[in-house]
Design brief:
This protein is α/β, with parallel strands linked by helices and 320 residues long. Helix content is 31%, strand content 23%.
């Protein structure tokens, strides 16, 4: 049996990116029950990819009740629906076998990974205050993507002088804006720029100076995306809601690294259940960005542990 429910988690504060603001995370929780065992998965439908809570629910409810993880890869496209079911099936397999997911996948036991903490898009003054409040964190991520981003970047660097900084423009820059900002990124200690241009316009990155590594997010979903990234990007951002689950995420990670890309592992704003499978993909990644639960005012009953070592792998009571 496959069940889908909607859950809402309040955010700790208003979260703003270049596409808009939100005060809560709306997610879908999938429960797969078989032979007295229950597996769980979570996804976050994303309007950028024409997904809604309703459309993703319909995709999941259209699956056969006895769907296997192998068959699922062909029954649904890469996206949120397949992600939640794929991860629930991994969880179910682990519980039936009495093993952890990483053992089933033939991977070493995972450890903690330092994760980025995301600062919401705001005025320079407000972003400097956010940065100062979180200056103890080793890695900060800044949501930018407007024509007036330099004052914001300068303000964050002033607020957190010792933190590594990565930038997510969320497709909000033009080639001209990026070219103008690029020389300043090294000066301000930026370690990575995520999706500076719209995915449909990223051909402009070919031949453009990249003083810091450029990461494909909206331009990279699964392994089929890789041929279109050549000459444009240095890093790929693997998100399970884009790959359609842990199965494809692990395959994308392997192929991307074999082709010479560094790997970033990211997330939508969701609960610890959504982040749990991604902690496996994040092992040894160049950048881990699994801070979704840190942005919430409430979480699952058995949340992931975040401490000075980073985000830890899930306990069996949560997932896997």
């Amino acid at each position: 049996m496959i069940e889908v429910t909607r859950d809402v988690f309040r955010l700790a504060q208003v979260f703003t990116i270049s596409r808009g603001s939100r005060t809560e995370a709306k997610v879908l929780t999938v429960k797969v029950s078989r032979d007295g065992h229950v597996g769980y998965g979570e996804c976050v439908p994303y309007a950028r990819y024409d997904e809604t809570l309703e459309s993703v629910t319909a995709e999941i409810e259209g699956l056969p009740a006895d769907v296997t993880r192998a068959a699922l890869q062909d029954l649904l496209p890469a996206g949120a629906a397949r992600n939640a079911v794929d991860c629930a099936l991994w969880d179910l397999e682990a519980k039936r076998a009495g093993k952890r997911v990483w053992d089933l996948a033939g991977l070493p036991a995972p450890g903690p990974e330092i994760t980025a903490y995301t600062l919401s898009l705001d005025t320079p003054e407000a972003m400097q205050a956010q940065a100062a409040k979180n200056a103890f964190r080793p890695l900060l991520k800044i949501k930018l993507g407007t024509p007036d981003d330099m004052p914001r970047l300068e303000a964050v660097r002033a607020g957190a002088p010792d933190s590594r900084i990565i930038i997510d423009a969320n497709e909000g820059w033009s080639a001209e804006v990026y070219a103008d900002l690029a020389p300043h990124l090294t000066r301000l200690g930026v370690a990575l720029v995520e999706q500076p241009l719209p995915a449909e316009a990223d051909e402009a990155l070919i031949g453009m100076d990249r003083p810091v590594p450029v990461c494909a997010d909206e331009s990279c979903h699964d392994r089929s995306s890789l041929p279109g990234l050549k000459g444009k990007y240095d890093v790929v951002n693997i998100k399970l809601d884009k790959t359609g689950g842990l199965t494809e995420a692990l395959a994308l990670r392997a192929q991307a690294m074999a082709e010479g890309y560094a790997v970033m592992v990211g997330c939508m704003v969701g609960s610890s259940l959504a982040m749990a499978p991604a902690t496996i993909v994040a092992q040894g990644a160049a950048v881990t960005d699994l801070d979704g639960p840190l942005l919430l005012a409430e979480d699952r009953d058995q949340p992931l542990l975040f401490d000075a070592e980073g985000v830890h792998p899930p306990q069996p009571a949560l997932w896997g």
